[in-house]
Amino acid sequence: MDTTALLKSVPTGLWIGGEEREAKSTFNVLDPSSDEVLVAVGDATAEDAVAALDAACAVQAEWAATPARKRGEILRSVFETLTDRADDIAALMTLEMGKVLAESKGEVTYGAEFFRWFAEEAVRIGGRYTPSPAGTGRIIVTKQPVGPCYAITPWNFPLAMGTRKMGPAFAAGCTMIVKPAQETR
């Protein structure tokens, strides 16, 4: 895909509640080699953050109740999508950050692997049943979703550090709110 078409394919709104929403304001993503504007993307407000939290809370119980096998299958499909689109994602990352293309491709591969790993781990989430140290009772440890999780990703490894946080949260049955770094260089 050529650069112009690639940049036009970038979602520029806010992703809240499973849909892209237009933001009240935007900020420019600049090419670090020329300071040219690559694209203007949505700049979330405090109200948008509350809307994201409300949306994550609204579906938390449903996602937590989704069988682990199904959560794993969804995570696996995300891994496959990232892998299939690796070249385009890496090209965008290089344009935005100025990373060498090989490093961007490496980050996409590394980041996608978190989804594959946690797709397989989703079905292994269990608990523990052990005798108490005094031998007078039993200790039962049950693992369960804690609710919406929050992540702020760094500018220098945006995809890999995002997937590193999203993979385990989604596998465990938690919804997620992600705030990417605005600074990309």
UniProtKB/TrEMBL annotation:
Q: Which InterPro entries match?
A: Ald_DH/histidinol_DH, Ald_DH_N, Aldehyde_DH_dom, Aldehyde_DH_Superfamily
**GO molecular function: any one?**
succinate-semialdehyde dehydrogenase (NAD+) activity
Instruction: Give a yes or no for keyword Oxidoreductase in this entry.
Output: yes
Q: Which domain of life is it from?
A: Bacteria
Query: What GO terms describe the biological role, i.e. biological process, of this protein?
Result: gamma-aminobutyric acid catabolic process
Which UniProt keyword terms apply here? Oxidoreductase
Do you know which Pfam families this protein is assigned to? Aldedh
Outline the extent of the Aldehyde dehydrogenase domain: 24-184
Read off the PANTHER family from this record.
SUCCINATE-SEMIALDEHYDE DEHYDROGENASE, MITOCHONDRIAL (PTHR43353)
Q: What is this protein called?
A: Aldehyde dehydrogenase domain-containing protein
Organism, by scientific name, is: Mycolicibacterium monacense (Mycobacterium monacense)
